[in-house]
Amino acid sequence: xxxxxxxxxxxxPPPISEAxxxxxxxxxxHDERARFNFHACLYKAISDxxxxxxxxxxxxxxxxxxxxxxxxxxESRHEVRRAMTADPFHNFWGALRRNTMEMRxxxxxxxxxxxxxQMAERAEKLNAGSDRLVLNDTVEIxxxxxxxxxxxxxxxxxxxxxxxxxxxxxxxxAGFFVTTGGTIGGLCDGGxxxxxxxxxxxxxxxxxxxxxxxxxxxxxxxxPIAQAFPDTEFIALDVxxxxxxxxxxxxxxxxxxxxxxxxxxxENLSAFEPGxxxxxxxxxxxxxxSSKSLPKIISEGHRVLAEGGLMLHLEQPQYSEDMPLYExxxxxxxxxxxxxxxxxxxxxxxxxxxxxxxxxxAAAVNVASLKGISDYEDGKGPTSVEHGRAPDWHAYVxxx
Length: 400
Hints:
The protein is of the alpha/beta class. The protein has helices spanning about 30-50, 50-70, 75-85, 90-115, 115-125, 145, 165-180, 190-200, 220-230, 240-255, 295-305, 325-335, 345, 350-355, and strands spanning about 135, 210-215, 235-240, 260-265, 275-285, 305-315, 365-370, 395-400. It folds into 2 domains: about 10-130 and about 165-175, no CATH class; about 180-400, Vaccinia Virus protein VP39 (Rossmann fold), CATH 3.40.50. The protein is globular, with a radius of gyration of 21 Å. The chain starts with about 30 loop residues before the first helix and ends with a strand.
């Protein structure tokens, strides 16, 4: 291929080498990087070139067939799902999507399993002697984590193979950069930058003393918020020891020292006093909770939130009457095909009603779209389209 025939750089995802190589990032040899780069290009090609066919076959084939058979349009996303899964093109696309996720996990496993002990040693050196990492091996992994290999990741977020294991987090870190096509930054922290920017713009007087992040995972969303509020004490909770070890070591290697990582289930925050935090938040987490655990976490968050404080949940938009059924179904696909069993029910939950039920004033709940909001140098947020879904993230914010 000549230079004039080559794919323009702006159409290709950045190589894995552009991910920030912080102190615990998994090391890769040539072939491992090549596999990740191939996967990123394949993922983008499916998203850009194959996925748009779904809307075409829905408009031109699936919807007309449904109307002919039923004498009406579909009345729910579930009817759209059943109609779409009867179409061979949609099943072809679905098989490609599922296989690319499994492929991504295989790539991550090959990288991290090869260097389990070395990564654990690097994390231990960064974590040694710190009072900002508090692990508790009596914390029970809840069933909605223990029984699901999220995103097809064997052992999900919590599996430990060697003492001090951080492999699940390292796998997640590298894979997240690939599946987002590098559009949310070399540290996969674009969501956190958007939240920090939005908070400082929307609440310029907000000067929190303490912030609680529930379900922090490796903290990639939390870190830019901690940098935006350097005088604030952050508490980051998760049930996964590997995620917390990696998250603390990652933050330490990046010079971020105002976050304390604690192994704890957010369903029970009895270790904290009422009104202890000025902001209680989650990011891309609520969809991984069971229907029983979700209200418990919201309620506990309300209890430990100070009067006048903010609760913030970053998620994809909830299904609503003004969201087309086809779009609802396309966003719902992960619940049935990508090991996200609680996704569907959570995204049809009325979050405003749920927040009201634990004591928030419904009129004080703000639903903000963070699409295109970021503190990137060009002033623009992520612009990629993932399998036909616009990169639209909503912040549900309630003031106590």
